[in-house]
Amino acid sequence: MPAFGTKGRVAAPVTAAAALAFCAFAGSSAPAAALSATPTARTAASGIPALVDPATDLGRHTPGPEPTWFDSIYFTGSVKANGQEFGLQVHTRILPNRSEAAYRWTFSVINKTTGWYKDYDAMVEPKDYRWSEGELDIKAPGLSWTGDSVRQSVQVETPWGSLDVRLVPTGPAMNYASTGVFNLADGVPNYEFALPEMRTSGTLVVDGKKHEVRGTSWLDRQWGEMPTSLTRWTWMNLSMPNGDKVAVWDTIGAGSKDSWATVLHPDGSYDVVDVEPLAQGASRQWTSPATGQTYPTRWRVRIPALRSELDVRITGNPDQEIETPDGSGYLEATAAFTGKYNGKRVRGENYVEMTGEWNS
Known about the structure:
Blueprint: E1 42-44, E2 69-81, E3 84-94, E4 103-111, E5 117-123, E6 130-131, E7 136-140, E8 143-147, E9 152-157, E10 161-169, E11 174-175, E12 181-185, E13 188-206, E14 209-225, E15 232-239, E16 245-252, E17 257-264, E18 270-274, E19 282-283, E20 286-287, E21 294-295, E22 298-303, E23 308-314, E24 321-323, E25 329-341, E26 344-355
Antiparallel strand pairs: 1-18, 2-3, 2-14, 3-4, 4-5, 6-7, 7-8, 8-9, 9-10, 10-13, 11-13, 12-13, 13-14, 15-16, 15-26, 16-17, 17-18, 19-22, 20-21, 22-23, 23-25, 24-25, 25-26
């Protein structure tokens, strides 16, 4: 999910889904030319053929020839401990065809109760980074991420804190665009799926204080070619009180503008629907003192096909930006939403990811 992005709506047999700012490619991927990767708005029954498989696609994939080809896995969590609420983000991505900044992982924590925030960005030498093909087995200095689609273990060590958690999926996997393939921007296909409801437990240590945390996480796996023409994107993950999981993508490329959502229902069926462009409802801009980039901190998200209108706002502290090696950054922020979903009043917590410049 970080430093790359996309989004979309429900589709039928060979269509596509939304792509988080760094997520995944599929091991048994068909050639891009054989795919129809443009999401189409419709309702999809369960049983639609998927082009990704969480049982095998958590492992590293054989890279394509593109210089911007990437492999990514990421999770955000909302956990509680000692009467306080925390947001967690762990992400690792590789760009194996690049000579610089090719292997990287990040960790961020926000105390949503107090507003305290800290992040860590680690660049890793290729010889010190391992991500096995065909299985989730990632090891790098300061990072261990192992397991499968049934249970995972994540350990992180930084100079200011650590994390040691278990992640256990408690619901069906989400294939973005219902098949796990979609156009990220300007006709470039990506592969992505999520494990959107993972019971999370373990230990968080920040500034020497230990917290036994419990909560839930959303994991995203994405891979493929990152379009060089992709100028900015916003991604949001929304868990509804009725059990629906909603992933919103809003992307702008040189020749494309796409706003859409994948909706996974508890029975495994999907909707892929249009979303009104997020810029229309964005407000309360914040400018990063570190990078000078500007981001909105509030949105009115309208999904006409679902009779939904949601107010989303960043919580805890707007300064949840992770700086990148090129001197820019992207926002990986905790948020909360209220409003109507399918005509009913709802509220909840989520994450918002933004890259690019949002001052226009």
